[in-house]
């Protein structure tokens, strides 16, 4: 009986630990930035897994048309293959963050691998775009206490999200817009994608169209769109 209870307790502990390591808003393993207090009139759009020639230029056009700056968490290997596009994102005034070099789930990475992934992405971003933000987003949102400790030791700030568009599911722009809109209360960091960890050339046209719809919808409601660094500095 005692053995069964102990096994059950161990299983529950492991399940909880796994949940906290992946759930984006959990602060169990240490603080991560997910936005401001509910009710703020600021929103931060963030885009992962780029740059991507198939969709990033169109996204830049939508953001420029709406006079919005966003935050791009770039993969080092994509930056290596598409340096001009990474520079175009930076030149447009968007914030650029580190999303590792090859997008491994850091929950299963050794400390040496975690360090190497962060460093490789940081190095290529420095070489290609120069000065950029000190923001870091773990692939899949996966983190352990030692992962976050390494991120902070290197001077980075871990950034997660409060709302996910789940836009890798190939849903329509209307579905993506609806999914994000019904969760917005103000102050959220929103996760979207302009690329894919599976390779270059991903079609994110629905995400681009949803971005345009979201910006117009929430600007009409009095919201302002800012980069994550701007949101962090805000007292709104």
Task: List the topology elements.
Elements: H1 2-22, E1 42-50, H2 56-65, E2 71-74, H3 76-81, H4 83-91, E3 95-98, H5 111-129, E4 135-136, H6 145-153, E5 157-158, E6 163-164, H7 173-181, E7 189-193, H8 205-220, E8 224-225, H9 228-233
Parallel strand pairs: 1-2, 1-7, 1-8, 2-3, 4-5, 6-7
CATH class: Alpha Beta
Strand content: 5-15%
Low-confidence stretches: 4-16
Helix content: 40-55%
Q: Just name the CATH architecture.
A: Alpha-Beta Barrel
Distance between the termini: 55 Å
Put simply, the count of helices is 9
Task: Give the helix/strand class.
Answer: alpha/beta
SSE arrangement, N to C = HEHEHHEHEHEEHEHEH
Name the CATH superfamily classification: Glycoside hydrolase/deacetylase
What is the C-alpha radius of gyration, as a whole number of Å?
18 Å
Average pLDDT rating: 92
User: What number of structural domains do the residues give?
Assistant: 1
Globally, the shape reads globular
CATH topology: TIM Barrel
Report on the biggest sheet: 6 strands, parallel
- Structure summary, number of beta strands: 8
Report on this structure:
This protein is of the alpha/beta class and 236 residues long. It has one domain (2-233): Alpha-Beta Barrel (TIM Barrel), CATH 3.20.20. Helices cover 44% and strands 13% of the residues. It contains nine helices and eight strands. The chain has helices at 2-22, 56-65, 76-81, 83-91, 111-129, 145-153, 173-181, 205-220, 228-233, and strands at 42-50, 71-74, 95-98, 135-136, 157-158, 163-164, 189-193, 224-225. The strands form two sheets. Strands 1, 2, 3, 6, 7 and 8 form a six-stranded parallel β-sheet that branches. Strand 6 (163-164), helix 7 (173-181) and strand 7 form a beta-alpha-beta unit. Helix 2 packs parallel to helix 8 (205-220), helix 5 runs parallel beside helix 6 and helix 7 packs across helix 8. The longest helix is centred in the first third of the chain and has 21 residues, at 2-22. The chain is globular. The chain starts with a helix and ends with a helix. The model is unreliable at 4-16 (pLDDT under 50).
